[in-house]
Amino acid sequence: MTYKSLLVEVENNIATITINRPPVNPLNTQVFNELSEVFSKLDEEDDVRAIILTGSGEKAFVAGADISEMAGLDLVGINKMNKVSRVVFTQIENSTKPVIAALNGMALGGGLELALVCDLRISTEKAKFAFPEVGLGIIPGGGGTQRLPKIVGQGIAKELLYFGEMFDAVRALDLGIVNKVVPAEEVMPVAKEWASKLAQKPPVALQMVKQAVNAGSNTDIESGLIIEAACFGNAFSTEDRKEGLTAFVEKRKPIYTGR
């Protein structure tokens, strides 16, 4: 897979997508379109069991949207760009594969919104985070005002969104925005370790867990339990369920095929 703004590598059932617009990897329409294309392709690849999303260099994962592109757009143009971003972020959030964000540096504005749609987030201890949009006279438009409160609660979300101040990886970990903080040189190795573990698990079961959690978080408990029951049934009907239970009884490591 060859792209202008992305580097894509598939190895050992793990796809690694690198946003390659150094030094700070800003998001523009081209990046959004390429992300949409690559995630569509990877969703159809049975050999890909997990996806890592990261940025090039050591300075930034993604330091927001491309302001130079935004500044030249009128209302019609910015609404079109904003729609593209929302669509691809939702696409990544609902990918059939588990997605790990390897946060190699700053995640600001749209970059933080992109990180939030990933399932798991591993951050360098040097990373900085912020939603600086209000200081520019705008607000987050890629789902930040909706996804952030579900992670940190309304009060903390409003603090981060209103003031737009930088916070470090330690606070991001405390707030549940990231799952793990490691030294810079360990971000990709840990991401690959996690992805490798996920790649050995039954793909349909992982997909059903993701679907149940994502859909359930947007509804009431009774509706969520109905969604969970449907996902449970889908997982239970697979050959991998038979393999998992048989391997448990036979005291051996299961081998999952995704069927």
UniProtKB/TrEMBL annotation:
Superkingdom of origin: Bacteria
Gene3D superfamilies this protein is in?
2-enoyl-CoA Hydratase, Chain A, domain 1, Lyase 2-enoyl-coa Hydratase, Chain A, domain 2
Keywords, sorted A to Z: Lyase
Leader sequence segment: none
According to its UniProt record, what is one Pfam family this protein matches? Answer: ECH_1
| Keyword field contains Signal | no
InterPro entries per the UniProt record, alphabetical: ClpP/crotonase-like_dom_sf (IPR029045), Enoyl-CoA_hyd/isom_CS (IPR018376), Enoyl-CoA_hydra/iso (IPR001753), Enoyl-CoA_hydra_C (IPR014748)
Q: Which family does it belong to?
A: Belongs to the enoyl-CoA hydratase/isomerase family.
Return the protein name. Answer: Enoyl-CoA hydratase
Give the source species.
Answer: Lysinibacillus contaminans
